[in-house]
From TrEMBL:
Residues 10-23 have a biased composition (Low complexity). This is Cobalamin adenosyltransferase. It comes from Rhodoferax sediminis. Belongs to the Cob(I)alamin adenosyltransferase family. It is an enzyme of class 2 (transferase). It comes from the Bacteria. The lineage of its organism: Bacteria, Pseudomonadati, Pseudomonadota, Betaproteobacteria, Burkholderiales.
Amino acid sequence: MGKRLTQIATRTGDNGTTGLGDNTRVSKNSLRVHAMGDVDELNSHIGLLLCEDMPAAVRTLLVEIQQQLFNLGGELSIPGYELLKPEALLALDQALAGHNKALPRLQEFILPAGTRAAAQAHVCRTVARRAERAVVALGSEETLKDTPRQYLNRLSDLMFVLARVLNRYRTDGTVGDDVYWKSEKLARSQAE
């Protein structure tokens, strides 16, 4: 396959439009472009998360998720086309089940905090939710397949779980924990 991008500064978007993969031009403020941008931002945040120390299995999973998010972005850029396959959703479900099984039950709501890696995973979670909302908004105006919406919904859940995994991960052999919200309910249960 030849090189796809030969020139980045084309100036064709100077008028407020952008080209889609099917060679149509749309406003840079369209619902489709917002969804594409949110997915791209999510992928970038996952790239930043990958700069942190983490278990090898989590790293491998996140690299695969980046590939699938690129597929999702491609699918959004070509109306009616499918690049994100249902198998990608199944892989998220399997990862969720595996990582959840290894975690202790939650005592209370947790804060998006702890280690830098865990905090970045929470940023990824919130951006995944925004991307999901953008895809839902686009789906209310145009026909979309279900997999993109489902994938983003499941991915935000997985990023929450991975934040918990990353808060426990230490290279010195110790084990960390979640940062719990200091609610009245938790205070009462600890006092009993």
